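Pipeline run #58 for the internal structure catalog. This entry was flagged by the ingest filter as a single-chain record with no existing model, so it goes straight to prediction. Upstream metadata was stripped on purpose; only the residue string is passed forward. Reviewer on rotation: M.T. Logging verbosity set to normal.
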Amino acid sequence: MNRPLNLQNRVWRPLIASTRVLILGLLLTFAVAACASFPTPTPTPQPIEKAIVGKWVNPQGGEVNFYADNTGFIPGLKGEPEDIPDSKFTYYFQDKTHLGIALEGQTSVVMEIKIEGDKMTWRSRTSNTEFVYTRAK
């Protein structure tokens, strides 16, 4: 009687041990996978008409506000030799890379525009001057 039980133990013990190792390996694999950092999905870019809305500032202290109704506001500055008054404007997009701005009482000016995340760059087509703004938080 001892003999069949001993044979059975010799067959099942390695199988049980290897099953335990397999289960432990799977648990460790799942634990590592749960802790692993997965890349953040790239957000879908907003259409430029929505991305521009908000308050933007530049390193020189300039500020410009774009509103969803295609109007905007630039606060005036106190300075030398003279103050610059507040300015209201309307804006429109010729296409995804060209912004038209019309200050109250003036004709439109069209600029190249590029928005990448919280950075907005304008480039004047006539003077090739570049303005960089950051979205205000």
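catalog note: The radius of gyration is 32 Å.
catalog note: Residues 2-35 form the longest helix (34 residues).
status: ready for reviewer M.T.
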